[in-house]
Design goal:
- The structure is a single chain.
- The chain has about 500 residues and is an alpha/beta fold.
- The chain has 2 domains: about 300 residues, ABC transporter transmembrane region fold (Up-down Bundle); about 190 residues, P-loop containing nucleotide triphosphate hydrolases (Rossmann fold).
- The chain is built from 16 helices and 10 strands.
- The strands form 2 sheets. It has a 6-stranded mixed beta sheet, with helices on both faces. Strands 2-1-4-5 form a 4-stranded antiparallel beta sheet, with no helix packed on it.
- β7, α15 and β8 form a beta-alpha-beta unit.
- α7 packs parallel to α10.
- The longest helix has about 55 residues.
- The chain is elongated and about 110 Å long.
- Bound molecules: adenosine-5'-triphosphate.
- The site of adenosine-5'-triphosphate has 10 residues, from α12.
- Pfam families: ABC_membrane (PF00664), ABC_tran (PF00005).
- One of its GO terms (cellular component) is plasma membrane.
- Its main location: membrane.
């Protein structure tokens, strides 16, 4: 996590400087009490007031710095996490649902912001504070008192480390269940149109079951956390008892006078805050460790983002086998040549989308070989254009959809649609928008999974004309459009789990 602390170094530095000054001020308060008991009224009063004012001023500055550094830290975390997600291979990305990613951002990342940097800073500040106190106590009271406080602090901070591990495990389980809960919510809310008086209870049961499981784990996490707080309190009391016993002994044997003992009791109280904070910080840091690890695993993944393919002569699939549940899909050998227009047909569930997912690189769980211009290629995601069966429409604007946020030249668009919110476009209009995006992308191969299923017959003919006149190679799945097949260079059919080339027009170079 050091790379996330580096940009904050000046904030951290000044935070510690002002923390140090305010610690010196508070450490001197019991000393001024001691002076008061000794009868040095003026120095006690002025010293006390000055120390309090200085402490308040430094605290104010520290709080401002804390706030700013927290925002900076969270901005870096969120930006890097989102970039890492974008750069994951699509196959890896799909291992989780969008709801789980949203849950990660709002829970895990949030806990990293709250339970990593603030406890870490607080831990350093409190250690600094204790060291300052120790020096002040040694100078103003007795080095032995300082030593007792220091040693008993070192012993007591071991306890939360042990409890922290258990809290971390429970917290991790809770966060995982939270991801599941978000996934269930997404699933149920997407089916909102199916709610009526009969089905309502089914929806409620699903949500309540998922929530009960989540709350169960939350309870487990909370109880462990409470146990940690209890043990933390006990370990602090341990310090008070040790010092109390020593002071009683010193008073009885007249090694210390009443002013020193009064001031020492003041230090027990003054010590209580940093020690309790240290104990709490350690518990937090221990419990957030799995989140730190999972975050680091995400952001340290090498980027799988590819440069788009600008041209190719041939793309070959050799002896591909893809398991589809109980059955499988086999592709003995097929070849896509530059500019080829290929229709892919087959019954429902025959494996058309599965084949296209291999070609567009969103699926990598298959055996066999893909050769791009005779060279083996392992990662096709991002190389070619595609229109998926359930293609995504970005909500922001028509423009952003056809240019992918202005990263493509806007050569093709439908001006009549550009004022309409993209998600309000009809299914057919959205499909035309996707085709415009692919034309802007100028990919040498466009993979289309039923891109015109929402078009009426005349629109279908128009869009098909456009597709067939593109310079790019195109693979397109078709249903019940046998008359159109004649117009393609190749027709591939998936039958009984095997891809067969049923038509191939020989081209002369
Ligand atoms: N991850 C998976 N696990 C198990 N079975 C799967 C998986 N993915 C797909 N299948 C099965 O593989 C078969 C092929 O699915 P696919 O979506 O490729 O068919 P399709 O030809 O595109 O169908 P349609 O024309 O209805 O869109 C289906 O029987 C589907 O249930």
């Amino acid at each position: 996590m050091q790379i996330y602390l580096k940009p904050l170094r000046w904030y951290l530095f000044f935070n510690l400087v002002f923390g140090g000054i305010s610690n010196v001020c508070t450490a001197l308060l019991p000393y001024f009490t001691q002076e008061l008991v000794r009868g040095h009224y003026q120095i006690a009063l002025y010293g006390y007031c000055l120390a309090v004012l200085c402490y308040l001023g430094c605290n104010y500055i520290q709080m401002r710095l804390d706030w700013k550094q927290a925002i900076l830290f969270s901005t870096h975390l969120k930006n890097d996490w989102f970039q890492a997600l974008l750069e994951l291979g699509h196959h890896d990305f799909k291992q989780k649902t969008v709801a789980e990613y949203i849950s990660y951002q709002s829970n895990d990342l949030d806990s990293l912001e709250k339970d990593y940097l603030p406890p870490l800073m607080s831990f350093i500040k409190q250690i600094l504070r204790i060291l300052i106190y120790t020096v002040v106590i040694s100078r103003t009271i007795n080095p032995l008192v300082a030593l007792i406080l220091l040693v008993s602090t070192a012993v007591s901070i071991q306890i939360p480390k042990i409890v922290g591990k258990l809290t971390a495990q429970r917290r991790q389980v809770y966060l995982e269940k939270q991801g599941n809960y978000y996934r269930t919510l997404e699933d149920l809310l997407k089916g909102h149109h199916l709610v009526n008086q009969v089905t309502l209870s089914g929806f409620q049961d699903q949500q309540r079951n998922a929530l009960n499981t989540l709350q169960d784990k939350y309870l487990g996490y909370g109880l462990t956390k409470i146990m940690g707080i209890l043990l933390t309190g006990l370990s602090f009391e341990f310090i008070s008892i040790v010092l109390f016993a020593y002071l009683a002994y010193s008073l009885a044997t007249q090694q210390l006078g009443i002013p020193e003992v009064v001031a020492s009791f003041g230090y027990i109280t003054a010590f209580s805050e940093p020690i309790q904070e240290i104990l709490y910080d350690l518990q937090m840091l221990e419990s957030v460790k799995p989140v730190v690890q999972s975050f680091q695993a995400i952001v340290s993944c090498p980027s799988a983002v590819q440069a788009p393919q600008m041209s190719f002569e041939t793309l070959m699939l050799n002896h591909i086998t893809k398991r589809l549940g109980e059955s499988s899909l086999t592709i003995p050998h097929v070849e896509i040549r530059k500019g080829d227009k290929i229709a892919l047909i087959g019954e429902n569930g025959s494996g058309k989308s599965s084949l296209l997912n291999i070609l567009n690189g969103t699926d990598r769980d298959f055996q066999g070989e893909i050769l791009l211009d005779h060279l083996p290629v392992h990662q096709l995601w991002g190389k070619f254009g595609m229109i998926l069966q359930q293609e995504h429409t970005f909500i922001s604007s028509y423009d952003n959809n056809v240019t992918i946020f202005k990263t493509l030249d806007e050569n093709f668009r439908d001006e009549e649609f550009e004022k309409t919110p993209p998600q309000s476009l009809s299914g057919g209009q959205q499909q035309r928008m996707y085709l415009n995006r692919e034309k802007n992308r100028q990919s040498p191969l466009i993979i289309m999974d039923e891109p015109f299923s929402a078009l009426d017959a005349s629109q279908f003919q128009k869009e098909l004309d456009k597709v067939l006149s593109l310079p790019s190679a195109v693979i397109i799945t078709l249903h019940r459009q046998e008359e159109a097949l004649e117009r393609f260079d190749q027709v591939w059919e998936i039958k009984d789990g095997e891809l067969v080339v049923v038509r191939r027009v020989l081209k002369h170079d």
